[in-house]
Description:
Layout: H1 2-10, H2 18-36, E1 41-45, E2 48-55, E3 60-65, E4 81-83, E5 86-88, H3 92-107, E6 115-120, H4 131-138, E7 143-146, E8 157-161, E9 163-172, H5 188-202, H6 206-210, E10 220-228, E11 238-247, H7 250-261, E12 271-280, H8 289-301, E13 309-312, H9 318-323, E14 328-329, E15 336-337, E16 345-347, H10 351-365
Helix pairs in contact: 1-3, 2-3, 3-10, 8-10
Amino acid sequence: MLADLEQLVVCESFSADHVAVARSARVVGALGARLLGSVPETIVIDGVTHLRWTFGTPRVLLLGHHDTVWPVGSLETHPWSVVGGIARGPGVLDMKAGLVQMFYALASLPSPDGVCVLVNGDEEVGSPTSRELIEESARGCVAALVAEAAANEAGALKTARKGTSRYEVVVHGRAAHAGLEPEKGVNAAVEAAHQVLTLADLEASPAASGAACPVLGRTTVTPTLLAAGSTLNTVPAVANISVDVRVPTLAEQHRIDDLMRGLTARTPGARLTVLGGRRRPPMAPESSAELFALASRIASELGQEPLSGAAVGGSSDGNFTASAGCPTLDGLGAVGSGAHADTEHVDVARMIPRTRLLAQLITRTRRWPDR
């Protein structure tokens, strides 16, 4: 498993580099073909390469992604290594170790019949080209098992996820010389400052506070990237505000979207354009409850430590399968920490136990009746 993990990690697959993602897909496809005895269907959508294996009539969907947040060249500063039982390298936790475990889990069974394996290439950027493929693959399945990393170093499964929306607020002003005639300009930076404060207040509104979910908590609206102006002596004509939104319920996602579309300019002469919108719907705790109970029983039968569940603010493609009506359990992949960070790593000793857990989940859920 470590040798295969090394192959995946040293083949860098930054989401924005479609050539690198295509190269990674060939490596992932070859690994899956070797272990599963079947060549995948290669699906390229808008230049992004996805892989799918279908065995018989699918009842269980195994879901993962092979793209990472690490730009090509990251291996130079974050080389592959295994030292003291810890594996490191770009994307090792999120989620190349999960892919290895997923393939080995399925390969350990007498037959892969009744399983669909989907590995997409754009999860880290919101799965814009693969969302329909994911939802299509989930429909008709009785369970979706997501091999994303565990929620924490204790190995907690991800039983609920917030929904996500992303926006860009573009402020249109009017340029003018900042020294000679600033009064003839409309300062987009000043208007952007008003909008940042308005955006920050959205999450603190009574409606947002009242919509908090006991499991997933409250809505958050966070201005992140800000940019304005072109030169030091010019009144800014344009400003941009990126906004990250996390919501516990679908109703909250729609409510915040309405508020975003209703933003109005405060500065005379300025105007706003709101781009973006809803991305992933929330993954409600109800979608994972039965699967988590089953996983807990299996862990006990295998003599493994008791499982815990966690609700997280980050989203994954499990949000899509859950919203498509397919019971979904996430975080079944590698155990470690530091995803997307310099400290990203995998606890090697946990790889085989998690693989055995996943294998038994596949076996049991394939027997479930149609929903």
